Amino acid sequence: MAQRDREDPHRPSRRRGQGELESQVLGALREAEAPVTAAWVQERLGGDLAYTTVVTILTRLLAKDAVARERRGRSFVWRPTADVAGLAALKMRRLLDGESDREAVLASFVTALPPDDEQVLRALLETAHATGVADVTGVADATGVADATGGADVVDGADVVGGADGVPDDTED
Predict the structure, then answer these.
(1) Disulfide engineering: 135 pairs with which of 1, 92, 144, 146, CB 3.0-4.6 Å?
(2) Gap between the Cα atoms of 161 and 92, Å rounded
(3) Looking at the predicted structure, is the pLDDT value of residue 172 above 50?
(4) What number is the average pLDDT over the span 88-100?
(5) Residues 109-147: pLDDT tens digits?
(6) Percentage of residues in the chain having pLDDT higher than 90
(7) Is 17 left (phi over 0), alpha (psi -120 to 50) or beta?
(8) 3-state SS string over the chain?
(9) With 60 as the cut, is the pLDDT of residue 5 above it?
(10) Measuring CA to CA, which residue among 55, 64, 60 is closest to residue 36?
(11) CB neighbours (10 Å) of residue 123?
(12) C-beta atoms surrounding 156 within 10 Å
């Protein structure tokens, strides 16, 4: 039984939405001024999550190229390589990549957009077409190539383009 359940057994537990923990962990990492440990992330999120849960989420984010880790002593330190919008874009791209009829999926998506979102999408596509750049978010790697996820991987201190890895996004939080 979780600590919060022991404190108030009548309080219903709230189940987190899909991806909510990943977003919270990624947000905590982005607030850090340098790479941090899983224990730091756990403390930053209020300490009510088990250490192993935080490590699991970090590992899932690593598989999605949303974070990077490096060994420090006997443990790892973690740093973000994408922002929350970049993580959402990766999820969308993986869903699209999993479909056999991409055109039908894109057509269905676009026709279901509210007018304001459709205008934003049109403007982004026009900017991308005019500039010849796939990413119109302004986030670029060390070679000046923008990353379509809106985030950037960091390798040896230089930003580089991240990529989809095919890891399913059906994480239960």
Answers:
(1) 146
(2) 17
(3) no
(4) 87
(5) 889 999 999 999 999 989 988 887 665 554 433 333 334
(6) 39
(7) beta
(8) CCHHHHHCCCCCCCCCCCCHHHHHHHHHHHHCCCCECHHHHHHHCCCCCCHHHHHHHHHHHHHCCCEEEEEECCEEEEEECCCHHHHHHHHHHHHHHCCCCHHHHHHHHHHCCCHHHHHHHHHHHHHHHHHCCCCCCCCECCCCCECCCCCCEEECCEEECCCCCCCCCCCCC
(9) no
(10) 55
(11) 11
(12) 6
Is 158:164 a contact under the CB 8 Å cutoff? no
Find all residues with CB under 8 Å of 88, minimum gap 6, and list them: none
Q: Say how far apart CA 136 and CA 67 lie, in whole Å.
A: 22
What is the rounded CA–CA span in Å between residue 36 and residue 73? Answer: 13
Residue 7's pLDDT band (cuts 50, 70, 90): low
CB 41 within 8 A of CB 29: yes
Measured at the CA of 20, the angle between CA 158 and CA 107, to 5 degrees, comes to: 80
Taking the C-alpha atoms of residue 82 and residue 58, their distance in angstroms, rounded to an integer, is 13
Residue 168: what pLDDT? Answer: 36
Q: Copy the structure tokens of residue 48.
A: 């009510």
- Length, in residues, of the chain: 173
Closest to 162 in 3D by CA, of 82, 75, 94: 82
